[in-house]
Structure formats: structure tokens, C-alpha cells
Amino acid sequence: MTAVRVAHVSSYRPDNANGVHRAVAALTQHLPAQGISTEVWHFTRHVTDPVEYQHGDLTVVQLPFLAFLHGTSAVWRIVRWAPPVTRAWVASARSRIDVFHFHSVFQPENLWLSRSARTYVITPHGGYSSHSLADRNRLGKVAMLQLFEARYVAGATLVHIVSENERNDVRRIAPSVPVACIPNGIDREMLAPLPFSPRGPFLYAGRIAVRQKGLDLLVASYARARRFAGPSMPDLILVGPDFRGGRAQLQHLATRLDVSDHVAFRAAGSRSQLRDYLAEASVFVHTSRWEGLPLSVLEAMASGRPVLVTNGTNLAGEVRRAGAGVAVETNVQSITQGLMDLAGSTESELRQMAGAGRDFALREYSWPTLAERFAEMYRRIA
């Protein structure tokens, strides 16, 4: 059988804390074992000529893509063009690709390349949710949808979603496009269980993106829970890269609520550092208002940590069914109660949640199993 040839169009940063980058890196590393010939096309303004290299069995190509206006929002990066050297490389290489797989939303390079792609898949990674579209540069996103993005989505062979909550988001944009749901998985280095720390701190790990991740709700809820529970409430540690001044905003909130001595911030480091933070923690918390599918929650469960999640994480139902922790509504009252319930749990109860979460995560979200489903998807549409 001839191998299906798939090009993933995305930034390739396997050591980055960004969930999309981690998902792309992990999936593309596992696909060759499923007989899928895989490469990543990474469009960037940081090279002037195509640069091709190997990462294990994976081919990665960095391609120049120039920007007249380069801001923090992808909406405004539409003012770009592919220089002649990129156009020439793509013209010679695209015939060897059976399926293009585009990641993220409002990426001008995806729009440009999709025009010449016979078969392509889009993974929005939660980017078409109503919360995401309304969060920042709302008018720009609406204009982009009407002018470019809706046609691009409607022309896809398939839209891949990571949770069923995304299905209606895609339907609003392109009602007739086929949709397939396959979740993200867990990186292999996160599969080993960690020794349990029943009285360790509560931990959040991810971007310090205050609104999306609900970190303002988390700090406010923690302050209330500490007032009620007193010293029995463990400290709270937030680990991750700053995002649009979120850390300073949360530090100010913690000071105002008189919990600054119990809320600590740590810079995002390597994946091994994240394991070190998890090893110290007793509970992992994730209070997003909206998400695609947060890998950090799955990795915490696989590492043997009870979790507290909101409905906005798209994992609340799974946590409830597995008995892996506490699932709460996305508001201060409900999060406060969840924090207090976990702080008041016995060591035996916490260990039971941890074991249930680990069993569930390894059964449902291991990358080798999920890569097999992706391989079947590519063969079906190629």
C-alpha cells in the first residue's frame, strides 16, 4: 500500500508551552509509525530561504513568509505575501502531498496555500468558538470571516475538531462541511506516574492568559476559599508564560484580595520543569472560560493528579464520569466550592481521584491510539 503523504501547515516548536504547538509536534512524531508519510511546513518571517531538516522520522521545512504589518494578532498579519523563493518551492513540492492539514485560525499562509490544495483538513483548535471570536479584535475577526475565512472553511475536505463542543462553532461558519472529532493526546514523557503529594500546593500550568483561562476567577475564588478554610487551603502556584500583561494583573488582584503571600508565579520552563511542578502539587486546576482541549489537564491526570476543571475546558464531563476530581461551573461561587471540597478531601479520597484520572487518561488519550485514528482519517479522504 502506498503511504499517504500529509503536510501539516503550522509552527513547529516541540518544546513550546503552547498547546497547539505541542499537539502538532506530538501527532506528527507518531504518524510515521502508522504508515503516514509526514512533514511540517512552517511559514515564518525568520528565514530568507527554505530550510529543510529532519526531526526523527519527521521532515520539517521552514518557509519564508514576509509581513508588511506584523502585530500580536493574527488578524492583522493578513498583510503578507509569499516571496518568489517560497512560491517556487511550494510549486515544486505540493504535487508530492496528498493531504494538507492546516492548524489554527486566521492564518494568512493557510488561506494562501489552501487555494492550490486539492484536499485539505482544518483543525481550528477551538479558535472558532463564540468566546474566542468575541474576545479580542472582534470586528477584525468578523471582517476576516466574511471576506476570507468562511470560504476557506467551506472549501475544506474535512474540519477536524478536538471536542464535540466545537461542532456547532464550525456549523455556524460552514453548515455543510464534514466534521470529524478526534481529541488531542498525551505526550509520552508525561505517561509515567509521579509520587503523590497529598498536602502539596494547587497548581495551574499554561499561558497566563487571564480572560481565556479564567485566571481572574481562579484567584478571586482562591481568596474566598482561603478566607473560609484558613490554613488548610494549600498555596496556589501559577506556571506559564506571561500573556498581554496577565501576570501583573493577577499579582495586583492577589495583593488587593490579601492572598499575595499564598499565590506564587513561576516562569514557564522545559517540559521536565513542568513535571517537577506536578510532582510537588496535590491538585491541578484549570478554570478556562473556553478551550479547544487543554493538554495540560490530560497530562496532569496521566501523571496521577486530581483535577479541578470548569465546563469551559471541554473536559468537565470526562472528569465527572471518570471520578478524576471536581468539575465546576465557570463562576467564582462554584470554583470556590470546588477548591474547598478538594482541600477538605482525605488523602485516600485524593489518591482514588488520582488513580481514576490516570487510568482514564491513558485509556482514552494516548497518542499512539489517537494517531491510528488520524491515519484512518487521512486514508479515507486522500
Brief rundown of the structure:
With 382 residues, the chain is α/β, with parallel strands linked by helices. 42% of the residues lie in helices and 19% in strands. The protein has two domains: 198 residues, Glycogen Phosphorylase B (Rossmann fold, 3-Layer(aba) Sandwich); 177 residues, Rossmann fold, CATH 3.40.50.
CATH architect. name of the largest domain: 3-Layer(aba) Sandwich
Number of domains: 2
Largest sheet: 8 strands, mixed
CATH superfamily of the largest domain: Glycogen Phosphorylase B
| Distance between the ends | 13 Å
Q: Count up the helices.
A: 15
CATH hierarchy, class of the largest domain: Alpha Beta
Strands of the biggest beta sheet: in what spatial order?
A: 3-4-2-1-7-8-9-10
Overall 3D form: globular
Question: What is the gyration radius calculated from CA atoms?
Answer: 21 Å
CATH fold type of the largest domain: Rossmann fold
Low-confidence stretches: 68-79
Number of strands: 16
Instruction: Give the averaged pLDDT, no decimals.
Output: 91
Strand content: 15-25%
Percent helix among the residues?
40-55%
Overall structural class, as computed from helix and strand content, comes to alpha/beta
